[in-house]
Hints:
Strand content: 5-15%
Radius of gyration: 40 Å
Helix content: 40-55%
Strand order of the largest sheet: 3-6-7-8
Largest sheet: 4 strands, antiparallel
Number of helices: 4
Distance between the termini: 126 Å
Order of helices and strands: EEHHEHEEEEEH
Number of strands: 8
Structural class: alpha+beta
Shape: rod-shaped
Amino acid sequence: MGSLEGKAGHAVNPDALENDNKMNMGVIEMTAVLKRLKKDEKGFTLIELLAVIVILGIIAAIAIPVISNIMNKSREKSDIATAQQIYDAARMYIATENNGDFKSKSINVVTELMAKNYLDSNLTLPSTKEKIKAGEVKFDTNGNLLYVGISANDETISDDEKYTPEKLKDGKSSSGGTSNNNSNT
């Protein structure tokens, strides 16, 4: 094979020229393939979308019951805090109105504590946001708290709506205590 003359008048090997042409063609083909691939990848595949949906479903299946449980516990604790507030108001009421005699007392929340402004007359149960319509704070013959009962439904108080000293202690915040024994001396 003869040699060809390049731009600057130098001799060019035809085999080298052929290799350069092949290389250029390879680069052009590779560029075309990459452009085609880039054009084809505009969105997600169905499998990718299904995988994301399945993962979100699993997260929701775990999170929803946990959040629901947290909300229920929060409602219960807020009702206990309200019962604690009513108990504290009853203690103030007895100390002021009955000279501190707690023995065998039953204090009506609506007619005594709310009527005499020991509690706000618009006090509501936090769990239901309904106004308290019935309530009772009951002490035994030794002056110990038996229960605090509160209801937003009617004039009767069910056993589920009675908060014993144990419930008040379990649900209390760190900023106040509940005592079964009242100092009556």
